[in-house]
Amino acid sequence: MGSSVATPPAPPAPASPPPPQGKDAVEGSATWRPADRIGLAICWALGLLFCAIAIAIVVYLFVQGIKFLKPSMLVTPASAGFSQGESGGFSDALFGTLIVATMGIALALPTGVGIAVWLVEYGRPTALARITESTIESIAGIPSIVLALFGTVIFSSTALGFLSRSSEGVVFGRSFFAASAMLSLVALPLIVASTREGLNSIPRHVREASYAVGKTKAATTRRILLPASRPQVATGAMLGLGRIIGDTAIIIVLLGATQNFAPVEGASFPLNYLRGAGTTLTNFVYEASPTGNLNQPEKAYAAAFVLLLMVLALNGAVDIVHRRARKVGTWSS
Amino acid sequence: MNEELPPEYGPRWSDQRIERMLGALVCAVVGLLLAMIVTVLVRAWPSFSHNGLAWFGPGGSVDDQLNAIFLSGQAGAEYIYTFHAWPLIWSTILITGGSILIALFSALFVAVFIVEFAPEWMSNILQPVVRFLASVPSVIYGLLGVLVLVPFIGNHLVSEEQKASVAGIISLSGYSLLAAITVLTVMIAPLMVSIFSDGLRSVKPGWLEGSLALGVNRWRTTWKIGVRTARPAIVAGTVLATARAIGEAVMLAMISGSVGFAPNPADGLIFIFEPSRPLAPTIVKNIDQLSSPPANATLFAIASVLLFSATLFSLTGWLARRSMRKYGAA
């Protein structure tokens, strides 16, 4: 994507009549003072540094990951053992991440889309719309550790005891339900922002055309506006998913300190796991790092590698959606 | 038109009902946030009321205080609340402030580079790179910090004399302000870059062209017109990144050193090698103490400080971006 400013006028060439090509236009100018050139050099240096950091992270984790990751780790749960070879893998963490991601996004997506639709299409009374906007904005800024602490208060209340383990009236408060619910709040602002952007980019006359043939507002939203902003909704969902997968603080506080599933006895199949404590990849990496309780750096690298692959896949998916949406073209009003 | 009515004309999908349903959803989310603020403050109240303003001041060892608070709740004896959080607050200020300064400088240059000066292929590389750096989970940054950066600092940057000079007080093993600031900068700079470059892109081309037409070169035009016009975006990006940095818990819990110690810049350059522990990681590290009522109140007090400052920062950022929209920029 080119710079929007440079395209309309030819780059400010000093003398040459035809627009000079790319870099020459920048460097070939006689008006550049030494300080300006140093500034541009800093730009290049920092830009290259960013690239270098990203490449270093990816290459280093790939090397370490391929060195330490064994396929068996993906299917064996963690177990107690004296050496890193004996203590199993992290299958429970992997499944935990998948469960948390599914449940979190299943909660956040409808809520986020609903809020965005209300903000863009209804938004009355205006005061409530303002308040909602700033609420969503401040949720984005709330540290997830604070959300996690708040989660302990909600989910330890006796009324919500059915969502986690409880014994003798004391509610444990740590479960997949609790973690996913709080994680959905983390994803919510991204989904709302992205969906709003999509809805706002649809020109007014599209809505008017729909109203003119007698469609209600609700029907217009459902049949025309939401399908048209599908790429943005998908982008928001994937960004939110990335945030959910990557969050650690909420998992540490609300999912439990085990490295295995801890299903609740006396509940039927999916519920016993979802009500129980568990772990995710982020939690596993945290605990397996030298500062955690397990201290198994090799497996931490392996799990971090898997986590990075997920993040890269999500990034790639966002890119594809973007590119496809641009190719199809949006509304030209 | 169809003869039979499509379902959206029935009462199930009627307009008013949808509006009311969505309105209720919105109110629920707003209510949840209010409930959270109230809950956190109510839970935190005992800690604040026992300490008064001294809560924020220095005095004694924070780690000993946290321990005493926890044990008093376990024993069932009279609860102890005495807590002076200054070392934690100071560490938060140092780490957040340091990384914000570095990130602001570098993000500004990188954003200008991406928007104005980078050749097309370079900005095509840089944009995904920035997005990638922003989406790497913090625990991965923490892991790399612990296993790569911290040993490097401990083994190569800190000299033996420096280690010996503070041996009785703390150990300089590489878990340090320097490591924390470095990694935190890498985490928040991409966030700033993306907001800054959005702001720079939305500067009206006519303004830049006007400056260029007067014979000002592109570098100066960008900084004098582009960057100045995009100031609201720069404020917004900085402030949002600050909120993120203040709330960063897990990564800092891994590499900040986790000692309730306040590094003193007056000691000379050695202070950047000293360990500390900001507010947010303190919650993570002491999370298993929630069952003890006084410790619970203390942790919620820390959380309420975080909540207050983060909300303040993100609302400021929101207002700044709104004002940007008013200029017709966005």
- Gross morphology of chain B: globular
Low-confidence residue ranges of chain B? none
| Number of helices, counting only DSSP H or I runs of 4 residues or more of chain A | 13
On the 0-100 scale, what is the average pLDDT of chain A? 84
Instruction: Estimate the mean pLDDT confidence of chain B.
Output: 87
Tell me what you see in this structure:
The complex is a heterodimer of chains A (about 325) and B (about 325). With about 325 residues, chain A is mainly alpha-helical. Helix content of chain A is about 65%, strand content about 0%. Chain A has helices at about 20-25, 35-70, 90-120, 125-140, 145-155, 175-200, 205-210, 215-230, 230-245, 250-255, 270-275, 280-290, 295-330, and strands spanning about 165, 170. Chain A has a two-stranded antiparallel ribbon. Chain A starts with about 20 loop residues before the first helix and ends in a 5-residue tail after the last helix. The model of chain A is unreliable at about 1-25 (pLDDT under 50). By secondary structure, chain B is mainly alpha-helical. Chain B contains 13 helices and no strands. Chain B starts with 14 loop residues before the first helix and ends with a helix. The model of chain B has no long low-confidence stretch (mean pLDDT about 85). The chains are: A mainly alpha (about 325), B mainly alpha (about 325). Chains A and B meet through helix 1, helix 2, helix 3, helix 4 and helix 5 of A and helix 1, helix 3, helix 4, helix 5 and helix 7 of B.
